[in-house]
Structure formats: structure tokens, C-alpha cells
Amino acid sequence: MENVEIARIFREVADLLEIQEANPFRVRAYRNAIRTIDAHAVPMRKLIEQGADLTELPSIGKGMAENIQELVETGGLAILDELSAEIPEGLIDLMKLPGLGPKKARKLWDELGVESIEDLEAAAGEGRVAELAGFGKKTEERILQGIQNYRTNTSRFRLGEVDELLPPLIEHLQAVKGLNRLEVAGSYRRRKETVGDIDLLVLADDAAGVSEALVGFSGVERVIGAGGTKTSVMLRSGLQVDLRVVPPESWGAALVYFTGSKEHNIKLRQRALDRALRISEYGVFEIPDESLGDALGERGVASEGELVAGETEEALYEALDLPWFPPEMREDRGEIALALENDLPRLVEQSDLKGDLHMHSTWSDGRNTLEEMVEACETRGYEYMAITDHSKALAMVEGLDAEKLQRQWVEIGEVQSRHPDIRILKGMEVDILKDGSLDLEDDMLEQLDIVIISVHSFFGLPAVEQTARILKALAHPQAQIFGHPTGRIINRRGPIEIEIDEILQACAEFGVAVEVNSHPNRLDLRDTHLWRARELEVPVLVNTDAHRTDELDLAHYGVEQARRAWLGPEHVLNTRGVEDFLSGLK
Length: 586
Known about the structure:
This protein is an alpha/beta fold. Helices cover 43% and strands 14% of the residues. It folds into 4 domains: 3-153, DNA polymerase beta, N-terminal domain-like (DNA polymerase, domain 1); 157-245, Beta Polymerase, domain 2; 250-340, 2-Layer Sandwich (Beta Polymerase, domain 3), CATH 3.30.210; 350-584, Metal-dependent hydrolases (TIM Barrel, Alpha-Beta Barrel).
């Protein structure tokens, strides 16, 4: 059982305890343990295998350590079973909807008998939710919209979740004797922000041996199908894995086919037909008899036509007079037409980044000190970085007021003297208040090197009000960067209601850069919004919004999101040297 799964189960326990109105300290113990598990680089299962004392970890007491061990060894947790017997587990799903916390979920259960999303939808559809004290018609409407969004998103896994779930499986399969190559294809390889299932392609001397290894993996909950060259299983996490054993001569063709996208592959098939060729997962083949046309299935062509290419992706594309495309570009957004003009862009890479301009320290809600964040940036070879703690409106995380900010500047100066090889920029993530004003005095804003403006409150404002609020903030003379612009948390909280094109046009007008927030829970802006930002020549920054030193490693997710929007180094401000970067900001 991986850390992400343990954290998910602990989160369910904490949610059920809250609904049960249990001791707040007990609930907090689970919440604190979740943060420790999420932050720990080493899987709990490995620590247990090594005989490590889990109670040495922060927020992990004896009872919590026993719970972790129980999960790793049995795959279940007795406390969760007990709570589920008392409280419907479906109430946890209710808490994933916007505006529904444990108290409201309990109220819906107690007063309307709601035990699931389906029950809630029925009650809201009949107008019964609006009649409850503390809800109302607008809340009922938001609930119905939230249910629709929930159903759209929860069938897919966040990219970061899959990145944690896959390595143990891949490590297990790579130990199989005779396995020569393994690649993950599908939307995962194209680095889409969410993944529906996993396509694994392997070259192996013994197809049956690889299939048996997949079926025998400890994380498999059930076998969907096994035999021949294809095996499908469902992992305990709910992620489906389809494994295909591919012959060497078809490796490249299979990788193109199963990487997709479907739309990209349709264009490739049409291009092949224009050249009297047929393309499939088995390769590129000459069509043996034009009269056969489309009557032959792909397998029939594979058996009758002469193989032209298929061993590598490059050879397949070359057979169609095309260059190799980075997987992130394979979405049929004009990439083939651009290639025919010999004008494919050089996409931004993580190695291009020279600084990270959004991170938090113990001055607000960060887990590491200012100096530790600086040292971590220095270790990663950055030329510059910025500490951007929260402003005072976020009182729950002890945001900085003017006096506290000035004290932070003193520490920055001291730390800078000890780290001359990296430029420490003074910054702040300043809240956009409900009326569109900024949560810091103008004279203090003027002294900052970096001003990120962000929305952290009043997410439920109507689109007209929300857009007007942000437009006012963007027009502020000191606004430089719009942080995580839509405020979404993937699969948990939808984006705020704004006219995104109007916002991006205002960014272009006022010279405000937009952020792609690299945290895999956010990936905000999304790729289509970044595409529009590129069209409008709005500068982009790839930032991590790191709250711990290890979260600085999340930068690759933002880079991958930028690549999906065809952004090159010239579009991303923090690929520039420090002086060039600063001159590029408003």
C-alpha cells in the first residue's frame, strides 16, 4: 500500500470522525498524520519492511503507527470499518462538493436522510435542500452544479496520484526475467492533468511470465482479463492497468497508437491513406490492393501488406514524411500542419528554469525556514528565487502584515549575505480582497520585488462579480503576477466563475504575467488557458507554490503543462537571467 492510499484512508477516517462530532484533537491527529505521510519521500511500506520506528516521524504516535502497519500488512483498517458501520460512507463524498463540510453533511443526513450523492441530488432536485436552515436556493443550485462536476472528475486520477501509484508496479514488472523494455503510454505519457487508466507496453521474451507478474502484484484488487498478449487488472486504488506485450517490429507503432491522442492518430491514418499506406498498432504497411480500400481490418492489412515501418516512433513518422512529435503535442491542435511548414517549436524544458518565484516559509504556512528554502533552491541550481508568504487576510496561516513583512526583509538580508550565489527576491502572495483591492498597503507593495496577487476567499461569487473583482486587482500598478488564476483543486474544487478570456486580455493590457502553478493538485492555469495566454502574448511563469523544500521538485508538472500549450522558453519569464527576468515583469 502506497503513501497516497494510506493518506486517502486516513482522510476518510478523519472525515467520518468529524461527521460523528468526535473529539477535535482526535480528528486533528489524523489530519496531522496525513500531512506527514503525504510529505514523506519514502513509502511507509518500506519503512515497515526495514523495521523503522514510525513514531520517530512528526505527528505519528503509537496508535497512528499501528494503524499504518495494519494498512500495510492487511490492506484494511478496523477503525474505518467501525465508523462505516455507524455513519454512511457516502457522506464523505458529500464533503467533496463545494460548500459542504462535515456539519452540513451531518445536517443533510439527520434532517433529510441523505446518505449519498444520489440522495442529495434527488433532495436538491425536489427543492428540499433549500428549505433547510443554513442552505437556501443559491446553495442548492451550487450543490447541483457541484454534483455534475464531481461526476465528471472523480472517474479520473490526478497525474500526481498516478506518479505515486505506478513506480512500485513498474519496479515489480521490471524484475521479471526476460522483460526487455517497458513504457507507459496513453494520456499519462501525454501528461494530461488527469488519467483515466494506464496503458503499459512491454517487450518481453515471455509474454505469459509478464502477465502472471501483473496479476500477482500485491496492489491488484481484481483481474479483469488475462491471456495471450493482453492483461487487464484493477488496482486497489481503483486505477485500471492494461498491459500489452508487443513484438519488436511493432514497438514504435504501438507506442504511437496507444499514446494517442485519438484525434492525432486519425490525422496520421488519413495521411497514411493518402500515400497508399495503412497505419495501425502493428506498423505502417503498404496497401496490397487498392480495391480492398477500407474493407480490410487493421489486422488483415498487417498480415497481407508489406511492413514499411513500425520498430520505432521516429521511423513511423518518417514513413509519413513527418518529424517525431513530443507526446505533449499530440492533441490535433495543428501540430501536423506546423510540422509540414517545418516550424515545430522547441518546447520549454525543466532545465530552462532559472528560478522559482512562488514559495512559502515558516513566516506563514510553509514547513521550512526561509534559509532552508533558499538552500534548497541553491541546491537545484537556481540563479534566483523569491519568498512569497501570504498576506494578513489569511489569518489562519498567520499571514504577514506590514510590520511582520519588514521583519522578514531583515532576515532576507541576513540570509542573502550567507548565500551570495543566489539572488533572493523580496515577494509576497497578496490576497485579492472581495472588492478587488489588494491586501497590503501601496507603500509596502512598491518595495517588493515580486507581487503575486491571488484569490483565496469568496470563491462562490457570481461570474460578473468575480471577474470585476479580479479585473480591478489586475489594474493595480503594483500587480505583477496572477497566481493560480482559477483557484481550482483538481477533483476536489472546481474553478471560480470568471470570464477567463476577459481576464487574460486584461493581463495582456496591464502587463501582468500569469502563473502555471505546478502543484499536481492545481495545475492552474490549465493547458487551454495557457494556449490562449500565448496567443495574447501574456508572459507566463512556472512556479511551484512550494510549502516545503521537497515541493520545489514539482516544477516538472508546471513545465509539462506549459509544453501541452506549446510554450517555449521565450514564453516563460523565469527561463531568463535575473536582470532580464526583472525587466520582463511590469
